Amino acid sequence: MAMANVTHSWPPTFFLQGIPGLEAYHMWLSVPVSCIYVVIIAGNCTILLVVATEPALHRPMCYFLCMLAAIDLAASTSALPKMLCIFWFQGGEIQAVACLAQMFFIHALCMMESAVLLGMALDRYVAICFPLRYSSFFSSSLVAKMAVAGIVRGTLLMAPCPFLIRRLSYCRTNVIRHTYCEHMAVVKLACGDTSINRTYGLSVALIVIGGDLLCIGLSYFFIVRAVLRLSSREARHKAFGTCGSHLCVILISYSPALFSFFTHRFGHSVAPHIHILLANLYLLFPPMLNPIVYGVRTKEIRERLVQWYLGLQTLQVTDASGYRLR
Question: Which residues pair with residue 94 across a beta bridge?
Answer without folding.
Answer: 14
